Recover the amino acids of this structure.
């Protein structure tokens, strides 16, 4: 399975090399890494070229912001699965993409996400906050749910059906896209209960108070656009971050991947594009029961990394920018 990783960079000379190295070090073989530099004024391009690997393609041209650059990367990409590694983030360990590819082995799965560590800007080994994600259910959207976006991997067909990131949202385009996609009730998602990404504090959405307030305004606009709630949803979304400051238990044993369908019929189940056999350098997950969480119907099981899910239907869309 080919996974396309998109990195949008601008004036990121201090961190972009570490982001690229974290992708180059992955044990999963089928990787395409597209790095889009927005004509940085510092040494970002020099740093990219210094650590460039055989699977990396560099595009250096002006863009209209982070999500415009990401959209360009999606349109240029060729992988079946698409994920993001921002220039100041890094994949948490060398088997992240192997874990993700293993979860996508079932053709009905549309989205895979995991947990995230917020780390100190100068020291990515120093964890400041921990975001333990929860499996998706439709009712959680009204309570401000979203997956840690840097850990979210989507099949290309999800963008075909729902479109790219809406660039009218300068900061919260990720949240708007989550509401648009997951709120449709047609996404089959898998939560991997482990840290997939380390995200440095001081990014686009949390750089200062002004950015935080601007993001809240955009969050509210997305909430109202998709009719998932109102001010109570926005408040719940912000309050949900409080547990991230509580130190996480080491190891968090006994947690297994959870498969969730967004509605009565998983989307894309009858459109099996196939996937390439691959070797995963890891121990298989223990066999556990997996339920269709929002309906309570048992639909399959995880056994050594393989899923059996109910097939569904959808009408194919075309890839286009909102």
């Amino acid at each position: 399975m080919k996974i396309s990783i998109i990195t949008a960079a601008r004036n990121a000379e201090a961190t972009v090399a570490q982001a690229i190295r974290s992708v180059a070090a992955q044990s999963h073989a089928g990787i395409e890494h597209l790095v889009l530099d927005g004509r940085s004024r510092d040494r970002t391009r020099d740093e990219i070229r210094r650590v460039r690997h055989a699977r990396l393609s560099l595009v250096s041209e002006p863009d209209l912001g982070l999500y415009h650059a990401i959209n360009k990367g999606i349109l240029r990409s060729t992988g079946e699965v698409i994920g993001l590694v921002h220039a100041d983030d890094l994949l948490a360990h060398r088997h992240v993409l192997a874990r993700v590819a293993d979860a996508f082995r079932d053709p009905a799965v549309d989205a895979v996400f995991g947990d995230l560590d917020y780390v100190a800007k100068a020291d990515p080994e120093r964890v400041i906050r921990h975001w333990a994600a929860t499996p998706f259910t439709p009712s959680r959207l009204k309570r401000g749910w979203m997956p840690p976006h840097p850990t979210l991997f989507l099949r290309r067909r999800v963008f075909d059906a729902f479109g790219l990131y809406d660039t009218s949202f300068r900061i919260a385009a990720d949240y708007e896209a989550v509401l648009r996609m997951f709120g449709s009730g047609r996404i089959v998602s898998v939560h991997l209960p482990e840290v997939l990404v380390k995200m440095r504090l001081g990014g686009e959405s949390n750089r200062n108070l002004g950015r935080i307030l601007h993001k809240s305004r955009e969050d509210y606009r997305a909430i109202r656009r998709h009719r998932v709630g109102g001010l109570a949803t926005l408040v719940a979304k912000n309050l949900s971050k409080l547990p991230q400051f509580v130190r996480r238990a080491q190891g968090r044993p006994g947690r297994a991947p959870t498969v969730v369908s967004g509605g009565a019929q998983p989307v894309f189940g009858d459109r099996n594009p196939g996937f390439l056999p691959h070797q995963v350098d890891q121990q298989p997950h223990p066999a556990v029961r997996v339920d269709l969480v929002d309906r309570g119907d048992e639909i399959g099981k995880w056994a050594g990394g393989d899923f059996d899910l109910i097939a569904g239907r959808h009408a194919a869309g075309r890839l286009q920018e909102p």
Remarks:
- The chain has one domain: 3-302.
- Residues 249-254, 263-322 have pLDDT under 50 and may be disordered.
- The two ends are 28 Å apart (CA to CA).
